[in-house]
Every structure is written in structure tokens, then in C-alpha cells.
Amino acid sequence: MPPSKSTATSQDGTTLAVYTYNNRAAPVLVCVHGYPDNAALWAPVADLLADEFQVVAYDVRGAGASDHPASTAAYVLDRLQEDFRAVIDQVSPDRPVHVLAHDWGSIQAWHFVTAPDLQPRIASFTSISGPSLDHAGYFLRKGSRAALKQLLHSWYIFYFHLPWLPELGWRKGWAHRAFNRLERQEPDDNRSLGDYVNGIKLYRANVVPRLLRPAQRRTDVPVLAVSPDADPFVTTPLQTDIARWAPNLTTKVIRGGHWMPRNDPGLVARLVREHAGQVARWGT
């Protein structure tokens, strides 16, 4: 069944497109997509979970049918946190939500779950292929072999900080071909050129400041950190060496590549179901 569409308005006036797979009596699961995706990424997962959750996905600012602010400063993590708050105020004002996030969605969601005022509103967090930038800042400072390996995997971050060239690559098409070859995947017809171009601002607004001046961000929210073993962008230690920041942590290394929500939605649904179920048993 296709989702119902609504909008939520963030604190700075940005309008967000929100998609709800209705099961009003069920716990709410909010799905946050990464770059260069939009909320359509979650449709196969939502179809598998819609009997057990009220699944909600939204287009992150700059993607899909949400507004596309022109300023790079409009994409800082605090603005993205205001977007998330606007969505959960609308879909679940009175009960905590479960959060499922991937890639830049996970980077955002780590900011949400480590915000003291939002932690009571989040029942669980399932993170796939996306670390906290603050945690990454401390991890990379170690100068270990694992940190150096992650820097090699992060070559694309330096590329996205170049002026005009990344945008040109997406517009001309050669960047699509290069990135698709990393996982031998086909182009995603659900993505628009705006998803690719606007989302570069996420990197430029956040990565350097957070890595240079990381904050000590902690959370008591139960976290499941999922690391695909063939992820060409995010190494396993960066995602799982975080117990000091998240004491209620479970980690799983699974077979697969970076775009796990698209390539194996059944596994994603099972992991969310198991993690949320475990959280519910802890609370009884």
C-alpha cells in the first residue's frame, strides 16, 4: 500500500515531505535516509514492517519533495535535528519513537540520540553504515592503523569539499558511473539530480568542524550499530568502537555492502524487529 503524504515545518520554515505507512495502533518507526537518497529508499523495508509499526519516512532537507535551502549553513546538524523534532512532534507527540537510519541519516540520528532533550523521545536506534561525526573525530585522533584505514576509505569526503567539481560530476553523469562501480550497483531511478547536488552541503557544513572539534556526545538510548563487512565507505571499527559513548550498545557485522536497505530490505526489517523487541523486553 502506498504511504500517505503530509508535510512538517521545521523551526527555520523549511517544509519537509513526510510519508506514513499507516498502522496507527503500532509503535512508531521513523526512518531517516542518507546521501544521495530520499525517503523512497525505505519503501521496501516499510512494506515488510507496516503490520508491526507505524512506519514514517521523510525527505531530508535538500532531498526529494522537501525544501532545498540554498545556503550551506542551512544543513548543519542542529538544523537537521530541528527537522527531526518537527516530524516526531507531528507523528508521535506523546510517545517515544524507534529510529532506523542509514548513511547520512545515521550521522544525523546520532546527533538526535545524543541530544539530552531528545533522548526521552527515542525508544531505540538502529544505525546502518553511519557513525557520529563527533565520535569519528575522537576515533581518528587515535592515529591507529584502524583510523588510517578509515581515512583511506573516506577519500570521497575530501572530493566533496572541492569547489564546483563534485556538482559538475553529478550533472555530467561520470560521478554516477564511478560511485556505482564501487558496489557494482545499478543507478537508482528514485533519485533526482537535486538529491545528489544539494546533499553535498551536508558534508561541507558538518564534517570538518565536527572532526576538528568533536564534542563528547553520549546516549542511554539502546543502539544497534550494523556494519556491512563489504562497505567501501565506512569501516567496522568506526561504527562499533563506541561503547564509551553508548553503553546500551549492540553491534552486528553482517555480510553485504553499503546500500543494505536497498539490497537486502528483509534483513534490515528483521534487525529492526529484533532490536525493538529486545528493547520492549528490557522495559518489562
Using the coordinates shown, work out and report the CATH topology: Rossmann fold
Q: Categorize the overall geometry.
A: globular
Largest sheet: 8 strands, mixed
Mean pLDDT: 94
How would you describe this structure to a colleague?
The structure is a single chain. Helices cover 43% and strands 17% of the residues. Strand 3, helix 1 and strand 4 form a beta-alpha-beta unit. The chain is globular. The protein is an alpha/beta fold and 284 residues long. The protein has helices spanning 43-49, 77-91, 104-113, 133-141, 145-153, 155-160, 165-172, 174-183, 193-212, 236-240, 260-263, 265-282, and strands at 4-9, 15-21, 28-32, 54-58, 97-102, 122-128, 223-228, 249-254. The chain has one domain (4-212, 219-282): 3-Layer(aba) Sandwich (Rossmann fold). It has 12 helices and 8 strands. Strands 1-2-4-3-5-6-7-8 form an 8-stranded mixed β-sheet, with helices on both faces. The two termini are 33 Å apart.
List strands and helices in order, with pairings.
Blueprint: E1 4-9, E2 15-21, E3 28-32, H1 43-49, E4 54-58, H2 77-91, E5 97-102, H3 104-113, E6 122-128, H4 133-141, H5 145-153, H6 155-160, H7 165-172, H8 174-183, H9 193-212, E7 223-228, H10 236-240, E8 249-254, H11 260-263, H12 265-282
Parallel strand pairs: 3-4, 3-5, 5-6, 6-7, 7-8
Antiparallel strand pairs: 1-2, 2-4
